């Protein structure tokens, strides 16, 4: 016995979970409690997937020992009964030796491991993570208020779960011959959890077992993927515009709240400051401006009605112009709206950026394929945008190798992968329908396991088990985030996933993995209560328990409900769901119509719209890059020359310099441009931020999502135009005074947006 293989898988699984969480999450921005909870949820779910094959191999070894002992014991009993004469119907003595698997561990290791992993993940998915998810979106300003709001938000959810558990308890209490004890209570809890997970699992697998092979096959068709990418870009742009409008509405409400609470001595000022701290600096600056529907500026307002406004704020806490009443409940509701609006806007912004990059990559593949097939063109992959490969990858993954992979080999590899996925899906569907038949076994996975068991091929047992479980998990998890109803949640790489989506992914992993593994054990005939035959079971099944306490669930639901996968697979194969959603007004990507390239008419319109939107986005990025290049050249030619001519970076000449050195004479041959350069050589250019949306103002100097320098930022609150250079000056000075009144934020209002937990 050796703990080496188990410890290796435990360590490798932790590294995998931590790496994925680092890729999708943001360890430095998200709260540490959220990061640790999601890491535990992901780690324990992956641990079940990768360690369960070792448990299966150990169970095969124990079954071999028990069969040997039972065979010899029955032979000995027959000899005793017949006076030492062997009956002809008795199997001869078993003389073979059971080979021990290479990953065998001591007896108590797997039970203790499964208890910790299973019950910890169940506590996370049913108790901790739901409350934490509601906590992140609560609008209250204290820890106790957020916890209370989270519990109230989950009251309906917990009430329905307790209602089902109560019905099961009543059923057990009135059934004769059954006594309720601790073990049966655990069985009831695990039965309810596994039933919920199995129901969702069947729905997901019924769609994914057909859609995953089909999507892999379609990904080998570059023209199809390009049309689908244009279609998705059009829909994402509509969602992004709607999210921006929601943010605009929230900013208007915040402007009204700022007008109601204009001074720091107001009792609700700290709550308003907490809301404003969630906003990025440009949006916060807009929200802090005074809101005037009649278009009056701050100068006019401050001269005429400042005293009246202060009295109104002290007495009634209301803004007559905006109709906003300042109260704690109103601010809590506004705080919740701000959190949801910013999360939705961030989600659509991240999805839009990823979709644009995907479209550009597909266009590059199409152009390089057409260029490489010509007679005189070199077969080297050319990018329209620099991918930013590291130096080791650039040395190994040369443009020539990249062309052959992207334009020739990748499509063939994906077709082969689609065929393998299709065969696995067919095997899963067949095994789901026939796994309850024990003699002869019809489940393909049970047949493969029996063949490997006879040869004591533990490596094949572990490989088959890992492959099947991993494929089931990939189908279920990938489909979960593709469902249109759950589009609120997303996993975006490059640290762009928000806390809400990470918590949701952790919950779903913990809920789906245990019933999925139990279903797999039924497919390979490792569950004695399904095939009605007594034998040594896995330690995982012994810890999870059986659902014999509830005969309705154990005899009917868990055996025949997975057979509903067949009906869902047929509906997915004929795209009945997409056709129904299209008829209801939710346009889906439909092929086979009368439009261009065989697409539906409305689909073709959305494809054309998406193509134009992506081109517009690329032109915008090109203009931003040109502006950055222009500014860099300006600084190099004029600002740098001015510093060199004066001998220092100061804007004013030194007192020791000669008058001739202080002023450069302009000669007749100097052009107008050089004369202007002399006047402007010491002036630092201002960075302007384009106004309008959060996504456009998020970056400066040509960053992604910004219009680049040179575009003016115009406020909608009647405050005029202000440049980013002024923002920097305000930050350096600790705030600015507008007619003697300091802004709400001061220097604090110009820092980066805070996390969801930072206010407590």
How is this structure best described in words?
Helix 3 packs across helix 4, helix 3 (109-137) runs antiparallel to helix 17 (499-523) and helix 6 (182-219) packs across helix 14. The strands form 2 sheets. The protein has a two-stranded antiparallel ribbon with strand order 1-2. Mean pLDDT is 75; it is low at 291-316, 318-323 and 643-760. The chain is built from 26 helices and 4 strands. With 760 residues, the chain is mostly helical.
Which percent band covers the strand fraction?
under 5%
User: What is the overall shape?
Assistant: globular
Largest sheet strand order: 1-2
Task: Count all strands and give the number.
Answer: 4
Task: Report the helical percentage.
Answer: 55-70%
Distance between the termini: 50 Å
Gyration radius, in Å: 34 Å
Structural class: mainly alpha
Average pLDDT number:
75
């Amino acid at each position: 016995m050796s703990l080496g293989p188990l410890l290796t898988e435990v360590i490798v699984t932790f590294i995998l979970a931590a790496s994925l969480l680092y890729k999708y999450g943001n360890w430095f921005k998200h709260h540490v409690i959220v990061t640790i909870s999601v890491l535990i949820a992901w780690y324990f779910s992956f641990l079940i997937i990768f360690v369960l094959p070792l448990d299966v191999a150990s169970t095969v070894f124990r079954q071999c020992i028990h069969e040997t002992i039972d065979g010899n014991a029955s032979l000995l009993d027959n000899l005793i009964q017949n006076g030492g004469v062997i009956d002809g119907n008795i199997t001869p003595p078993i003389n073979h030796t059971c080979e021990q698997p290479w990953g065998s561990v001591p007896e108590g290791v797997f039970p203790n491991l499964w208890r910790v992993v299973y019950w910890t993940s169940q506590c996370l998915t049913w108790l901790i993570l739901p409350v934490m998810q509601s906590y992140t979106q609560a609008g209250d300003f204290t820890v106790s208020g957020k916890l209370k709001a989270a519990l109230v938000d989950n009251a309906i959810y917990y009430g329905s779960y307790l209602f089902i558990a109560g019905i099961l308890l009543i059923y057990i209490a009135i059934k004769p011959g059954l006594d309720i004890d601790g073990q049966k209570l655990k069985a009831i809890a695990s039965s309810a959890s596994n039933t919920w997970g199995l129901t969702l699992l069947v729905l997901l697998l019924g769609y994914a077992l057909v859609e995953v092979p089909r999507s892999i096959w379609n990904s080998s068709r570059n023209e199809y993927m390009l049309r689908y990418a244009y279609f998705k870009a059009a829909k994402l742009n509509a969602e992004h515009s709607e999210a921006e409008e929601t943010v605009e509405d929230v900013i208007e409400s915040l402007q009204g709240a700022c007008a109601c609470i204009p001074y720091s001595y107001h009792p609700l000022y700290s709550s308003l400051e907490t809301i404003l701290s969630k906003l990025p600096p440009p949006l916060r600056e807009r929200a802090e401006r005074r809101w005037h529907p009649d278009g009056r500026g701050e100068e006019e307002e401050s001269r005429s009605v400042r005293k009246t406004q202060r009295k109104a704020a002290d007495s009634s806490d209301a803004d007559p112009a905006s109709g906003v009443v300042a109260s704690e409940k109103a601010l809590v509701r506004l705080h919740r709206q701000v959190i949801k609006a910013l999360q939705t806007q961030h989600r659509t912004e991240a999805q839009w950026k990823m979709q644009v990059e995907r479209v550009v990559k597909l266009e590059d593949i199409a152009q390089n394929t057409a260029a490489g097939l010509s007679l005189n063109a070199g077969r080297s992959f050319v990018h329209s945008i620099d991918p930013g490969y590291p130096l080791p990858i650039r040395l190994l993954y040369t443009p020539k190798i990249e062309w052959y992979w992207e334009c020739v080999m990748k499509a063939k590899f994906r077709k082969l992968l689609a065929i393998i996925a299709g065969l696995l899906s067919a095997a899963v569907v067949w095994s789901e329908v026939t796994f309850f038949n024990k003699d002869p076994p019809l489940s393909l996975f049970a047949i493969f396991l029996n063949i490997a068991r006879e040869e004591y091929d533990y490596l094949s047992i572990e490989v088959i088990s890992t492959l099947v479980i991993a494929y089931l998990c990939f189908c279920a998890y990938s489909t979960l985030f593709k469902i249109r109803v759950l589009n609120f949640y997303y996993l975006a790489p490059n640290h762009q996933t928000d806390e809400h989506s990470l918590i949701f992914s952790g919950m779903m992993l913990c809920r789906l993995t245990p019933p999925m593994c139990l279903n797999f054990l039924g497919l390979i005939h490792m569950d004695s209560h399904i095939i009605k035959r007594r034998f040594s079971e896995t330690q995982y099944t012994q810890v999870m328990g059986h659902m014999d306490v509830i005969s309705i669930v154990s005899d009917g639901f868990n055996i025949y409900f997975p057979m509903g996968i067949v009906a869902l697979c047929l509906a997915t194969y004929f795209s009945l769901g997409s056709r129904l959603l299209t008829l209801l007004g939710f346009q889906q990507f439909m092929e086979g119509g009368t439009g261009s390239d065989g697409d539906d008419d409305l689909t073709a319109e959305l494809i054309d719209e998406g193509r134009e939107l992506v081109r517009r986005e690329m032109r915008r990025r090109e203009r931003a890059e040109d502006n950055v290049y222009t500014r860099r050249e300006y600084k190099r030619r004029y600002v740098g020359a001015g510093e060199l001519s004066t001998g220092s970076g100061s804007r004013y000449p030194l007192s020791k310099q000669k008058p001739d050195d202080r002023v450069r004479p302009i000669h007749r041959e100097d052009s107008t441009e050089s004369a202007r350069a002399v006047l402007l050589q010491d002036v630092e250019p201002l960075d302007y931020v384009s106004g309008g949306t959060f996504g456009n103002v998020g970056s400066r100097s040509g960053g992604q999502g910004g219009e680049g320098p040179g575009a003016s930022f115009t406020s909608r609150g009647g405050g005029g135009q202000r440049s980013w250079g002024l923002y920097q000056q305000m930050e350096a000075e600790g705030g600015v005074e507008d007619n003697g009144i300091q802004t709400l934020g001061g220097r604090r209002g110009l820092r980066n947006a805070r996390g969801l937990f930072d206010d407590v």
